[in-house]
């Protein structure tokens, strides 16, 4: 797996968020670090294809096979605090809907996934009635158990309590080395100590 950034730059109006980022993502675990407001989330959204750079280019490959920009979404799973869920769905409906588009890891069925998320007690509860912590755990669970080559996590323990943070760390550690995980965070407990760090301040 490989993501290559060449002269990647982004600006809003006249302000450059980062400039001339040249970097090859080839390892299994990365942490994009920097203070709040430094552009970590912006870079992550560009890397997963949601946002276009102002300058530069990105290329993706899996097993030396080039992945075109319009096919990247098939290989990506995402969890962020600002990711929208469908409030009208029950939890079971939300999980079924998500895995209509993504293959579940280890061929888990819906009931098994709910148990892994530790949310089976809320199987018929509508998402609109979920707490912020339950929402975040659901987003992480959907991302963790989507069979993709790239996993992007932005400030993943936002709204999680101590017990849920431990759940997050346990499931993150269980992600196979066959998946590249890129985490945007300024909290050391959110990424593995062995993760390769990319400091966005180096590209200001």
CATH topology: Rossmann fold
Query: How do the SSEs run, as a string of H and E?
Result: EEEHEEEHHHEHEE
What Rg is obtained from the alpha carbons, in whole angstroms? 17 Å
Which descriptor suits the 3D outline?
globular
Number of helical stretches of at least 4 residues = 5
Please identify which CATH superfamily we are dealing with: P-loop containing nucleotide triphosphate hydrolases
Uncertain spans: none
Overall helicity: 25-40%
Count of discrete domains: 1
Largest beta sheet: what is the strand line-up?
A: 6-7-8-3-9
Q: How would you characterize the largest beta sheet? A: 5 strands, parallel
Mean pLDDT: 94
How many angstroms separate the termini?
A: 27 Å
CATH class: Alpha Beta
Specify the structural class. alpha/beta
Structure summary, number of beta strands: 9
Beta percentage is: 25-35%
CATH architecture: 3-Layer(aba) Sandwich
């Amino acid at each position: 797996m490989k993501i290559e950034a060449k002269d990647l730059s982004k600006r809003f109006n006249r302000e450059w968020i980062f400039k001339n980022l040249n970097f090859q993502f080839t390892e299994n675990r990365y942490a994009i670090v920097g203070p709040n407001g430094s552009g970590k989330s912006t870079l992550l959204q560009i890397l997963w294809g949601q946002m276009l750079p102002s300058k530069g280019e990105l290329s993706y490959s899996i097993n030396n096979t080039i992945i075109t920009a319009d096919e990247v979404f098939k290989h990506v799973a995402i969890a962020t605090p600002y990711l929208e869920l469908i409030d009208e769905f029950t939890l079971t409906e939300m999980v079924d809907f998500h895995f209509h588009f993504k293959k579940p890891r280890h061929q888990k069925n819906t009931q098994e996934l709910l148990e892994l998320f530790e949310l089976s007690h809320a199987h018929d509860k509508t998402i609109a009635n979920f707490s912020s912590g339950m929402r975040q755990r659901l987003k992480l669970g959907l991302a963790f158990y989507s069979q993709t080559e790239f996993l992007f996590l932005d400030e993943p323990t936002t709204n999680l309590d101590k017990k849920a943070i431990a759940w997050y760390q346990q499931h993150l550690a269980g992600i196979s080395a066959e998946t590249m995980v890129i985490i945007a965070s300024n909290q050391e407990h959110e990424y593995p100590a062995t993760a390769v760090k990319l400091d966005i301040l180096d590209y200001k």
